[in-house]
Write a structure and sequence with these properties.
- The structure is a single chain.
- By secondary structure, this protein is an alpha/beta fold.
- It is built from seven helices and ten strands.
- The strands form two sheets. A seven-stranded mixed beta sheet has the order 5-4-3-1-2-6-7. The protein has a three-stranded parallel beta sheet with strand order 9-8-10, covered by helices on one side.
- β8, α6 and β9 form a beta-alpha-beta unit.
- α2 crosses α3 and α5 crosses α6.
Length: 228
């Protein structure tokens, strides 16, 4: 419930949007939560996108903040010049399991977090169920991806419906999540259901049929989410 929040110190406020380019890992979820406590919106980019499609998605839902994981640095740099960033825009770097320093022109998000207070910001009490907390993009199969606005109400509703009513998960349950959190199944159904009663989540970056059952055994998973 308490997340060190580095974004307040950078002037992020309710209604601001940050482009978030992170793979399935805990830092992604912590970033979304930290922004939601302010009332800001995480524009969740499909990490498989490149070039023209990636540029379109970034511009579809962008503010002046860009949160880029080490695993997406090369892809972001490929389109950075075309974004027309100004001096007020800020790009934050999140290392991927390494001690890599932030590249030139990037803020080190983990260092910023270490220096941030760990109490809930006053703005948390001002956030409502009707406020958006994320943009999730369509797959782009019928054209370029389009941003769908996800409200706090949808996450809380998914937590209640799937986590409490449909699945009745308990604190000793483990939800295995091989789906990306930049889509609603992972973001709402899996995360919401696990959070409803304090269950754990085991996160895989990408679904693997070969490793599915070994992962289930490794994490003592009691449920999982997938599509189809």
């Amino acid at each position: 419930n308490r997340t060190a929040n580095p974004f307040i110190g950078r002037g992020m406020k309710k209604g601001d949007v940050a482009v978030v380019m992170l793979d399935n890992r805990p830092e992604l979820l912590v970033t979304i939560v930290a922004m939601a406590k302010i009332g800001a919106v995480a524009s969740l980019i499909n990490i498989n996108q490149r070039g023209k499609v990636l540029l379109h998605s970034i511009n579809e839902g962008r503010g002046r903040f860009f949160i880029v994981g080490e695993e997406m640095l090369e892809a972001f740099e490929e389109v950075r010049d075309e974004l027309g960033l100004s001096e007020s825009d800020e790009a934050c770097f999140v290392p991927d399991g390494t001690e890599s320093p932030a590249p030139k022109g990037y803020l080190d998000l983990l260092s910023m977090t270490a220096e941030a207070p760990d109490h809930n910001p006053p703005t948390t009490s001002e956030v409502t169920m009707g406020d958006p907390f994320a943009y999730v993009f369509t797959s782009g199969t019928t054209g370029l991806p389009k941003a769908s606005v996800i409200l706090n109400f949808r996450w809380v509703g998914a937590a209640r419906w799937f986590g409490k009513l449909a699945m009745d998960l308990k604190p000793d349950d483990v939800m295995y999540v091989p789906l990306p959190f930049f889509h609603t199944n992972g973001l709402l159904v899996a995360w919401g259901a696990a959070a409803a009663n304090g269950s754990a989540m085991a996160i895989r970056r990408k679904f693997s049929a070969t490793n599915f059952w070994s992962d289930v055994r490794k994490y003592n998973a009691t449920c999982f989410i997938y599509i189809g």
